[in-house]
Amino acid sequence: MFDEMLMAMVRSPPSQSPLLQQANPPRDGFDRRNPRNHLRSVRNRCAKRQRNLPANRLYNCRSEAESPRVFVVSDLHTDYPENMAWVRRLSRAWHGGDVLVVAGDVAETYRNFVSTMAELKERFGAVFFVPGNHDLWCRREEGKFMNSLEKLNALLDACSELGVETGPRTIDGLGIIPLFSWYHKSFDKEKDITDVKIPSLEMACKDFHACKWSPQLSNNGVALALHFDMMNEMNHNAIKEVQTTSNHIITFSHFVPRQELCPEKRMLFYPNLPKIIGSDFLEKRLRSIHGNFVSGSACHLFGHTHFCWDSVVDGIRYVQAPLAYPRERKRRMNGGEDWLPFCIYFKGFTDKLSPAYWSDYYSENKREPKNTDLAPWVAKFYTRHTRRRGP
Ligand SMILES: [Fe+2]
User: Fold this and answer.
1) d(Cα 379, Cα 385) in Å, to the nearest integer?
2) Where are the residues of the annotated region Disordered (predicted)?
3) Which end of the chain is more exposed for a tag (fewer CB within 10 A), N or C?
């Protein structure tokens, strides 16, 4: 998402990347008028392939004594062919007894979403999912969904048909709780950068154009963030049940629960990023779930900003393990294709994700939310940008 906004700043008006243009070639057998037909054919293929897997590789056939391994990945963005190819390269043999948590932004189109989740469900014993912003984009759905909430319902229905979990569940004493969320501007509490001209949120973030909401659910106030947070109420009883039957709990969301889980504004090419990434309601809700658990046994997984992250704040471990865009992986010091999905749990929580550049940086450097001196790379970017376009 971060890169996308950066691209939006460099190009005006934001244009579609060539990679994205290749992302949706027409495929034989996809019924554009009825996406559910696609789901049916994918599901049939999936069931046939699952029958061919050795029985002991299927999650439901695991030995009672085995502890589940839980893997996490966010921001799969399989509209990029390279990312879909990465999903298809995941082993069919290794993960039959494992759980995979997918923390949102699977794909922009319903078709790619269903194909991706079916591929994952063929490989993992259990797959959990929460929606991200890209999952709810309607711009390439050719009018199939009236709005983003209708698309959300279609995605949840598809998950239910594929056997993908979208609600809380306990697996061998480990509770896994998906949390719906959306961002709101007031999540950003740190001092604004005013020395350079920063593009508006509407210009930088495609959600404002690619998602469709009813007039009551504007993306400007807290209405959307509240709406998504209230969706978690339908799982109230299931969450209580998981709390009473679990030794450890993993909650997960697509969006960011605390501003400290994102670099300071002066470090960012788009300094207003914190206004479109997180939710105070989310942090409150996950704390209400983890509240009774002692430090070290609570973990929250998230996505969206595409920064690898692993830090403990006020007793809860927060982890982001994004696949992200192909061009971001090339620039990342730890790539991602070979170590993702990241194993977060096996007989307890695993060691720290390494390297996680920004959370490692903040483990040694104090955050300075009032400091608005731009980092050298940001200052250089805005100097060039201003020279090219004029003030
Ligand atoms: Fe996102």
Assistant:
1) 10
2) 11-36
3) C
